[in-house]
Amino acid sequence: MFNENSKVSTTEETDTSGGTRKIQETDSQKDVIYKEDNGEKTPITQKVIQPKIEGAVIAAKGANNANTKSSIIQAVEAVTGLASHKIQVFEMN
Predict the structure, then answer these.
(1) One-letter-per-residue 3-state SS of the chain
(2) Longest dimension (CA), the chain
(3) What's the rounded Cα separation, in Å, for the pair 76 and 60?
(4) Phi-psi region of 62 (alpha: psi -120 to 50; beta: other; left: phi over 0)
(5) pTM of the predicted protein model
(6) Would you state the torsion angle of the CA atoms of residues 72, 74, 77, 80, taken in this order, to the nearest 10 degrees?
(7) For 44, phi and psi rounded to 5 degrees?
(8) What is the distance between the alpha carbons of residues 67 and 91, in angstroms, rounded to a whole number?
(9) How buried is residue 58: exposed, middle or buried, by Cβ count under 10 Å (0-12/13-18/19+)?
(10) pLDDT tens, residue by residue, 80-89
């Protein structure tokens, strides 16, 4: 993880003959954040953990048709990797 500081400054100048000049300066600084344990510095890292999908419940128009229901289950299986017995499809009212 980082401690970030950034600064942007813009300057616009116009000369006597009508010309203009625009200057934009960007200054950024990134410092690593450390955790100190018994005098030992260790960088702090960030980890994103995705939720685990346990099952799916779908409500869809036309789900009372066996072919439609089967197609929906196959699509959800392909996208999520879930087993078909963990996917329930119901007719939407």
Answers:
(1) CEEEEEEEEEEEEECCCCCEEEEEEEEEEEEECEEEECCEEEECCCCCCCCCCCCEEEEECCCCCHHHHHHHHHHHHHHHCCCHHHEEEEECC
(2) 79
(3) 13
(4) left
(5) 0.49
(6) -50
(7) -85, 130
(8) 13
(9) middle
(10) 999 999 999 9
